[in-house]
Amino acid sequence: MDQQVAIDGKHDLTRVDTPVSTPPPTPTPATAAAQDLYREIRSIYQQLAPLTSLAPCDCVNALLTRLVTLCVQPYSPDIVDHFYRIDAATALCHDLQNLCAIAEGELERHWAQKILQDAGPHAAPHAHARSDLTSFPYHANYLSLSHLETSLLAPFLARAPSNIAFVGSGPLPLTSFCLLARFPTAIIHNIDRDADALAMSSALAEKLGHADRTTFACEDATDAAGGRTRWEEFDVVFLAALVGMRSSEKVGVLRGLRARLRVGTVVVCRSARGMRRVLYPVLELSEELQSAGFEILAEMHPWDGVVNSVVILRVKA
């Protein structure tokens, strides 16, 4: 309703007060830093997106190295909060996660092929393949991540596991090889729905001398009706970071596994926090997980060069 204004004791019915406009908020150092970060990450995406291939090369390597370096910096909660409040930030992160997933697969395939080719003509292929494996650019990160995972896992195991599954093992199953060293009596079962990736990783296990302690199954973990894997025999199941590109998809995979795992089985999931969510999808810890049949045991967020967070779950009765 129009507001009447009193003039000389009377009311002027023709005048309307002009609304007072609120000036835009003054940028703070946190909002400015978040905007700068967003612009730089968006620029990296705009350079990666048009590329016809994300296989390792000078351009791809430089862009991804810059992206990872930006995302693992220890930002304040205010900067992270402001970053994700930017309208297009969520969509940008999802698009970048998809690109990073493709690039990671290409990098693993490149190195798996290199190791297999280099080890071929040598009389002692195991030693040569292991030397090549340690040259993989993120070898130290995988070692650190698997050490963090197994250390966090240890208090929830009654005994050393004998059967471990790794879902989404890919063409270069570095974590599986790390687990062989950490649990010297365990068998590691590598499960992936990509038959070519499994063939490559199986050949790698042979070259590295791990064939007697590794198995490989081409299976979709979300398909409850298919596959020959005996899920009820596993003591621990690892879920790769890229199994499920959204939290709801990850919960869906876990819900499917719950129907096949025995009560008490421990599940190790990889997630992300803060700006590292730009690189990897998040597993949200919510009532959805509990309704899917899991008890949440622990969560850990590294602050060093290890990108992934770790979530430990246990199958409830």
TrEMBL record:
Q: Name one GO biological process term.
A: nicotianamine biosynthetic process
Note one Pfam family from the annotation.
NAS
Q: Keyword Transferase: yes or no?
A: yes
For region Disordered, the annotated ranges are 1-31
Alphabetized GO MF terms:
nicotianamine synthase activity
* Coiled coil residues, start to end: none
What the entry lists under PANTHER family is as follows: NICOTIANAMINE SYNTHASE 3
Family recorded in the similarity comment: Belongs to the nicotianamine synthase (NAS)-like family.
Question: What protein name does the entry list?
Answer: Nicotianamine synthase
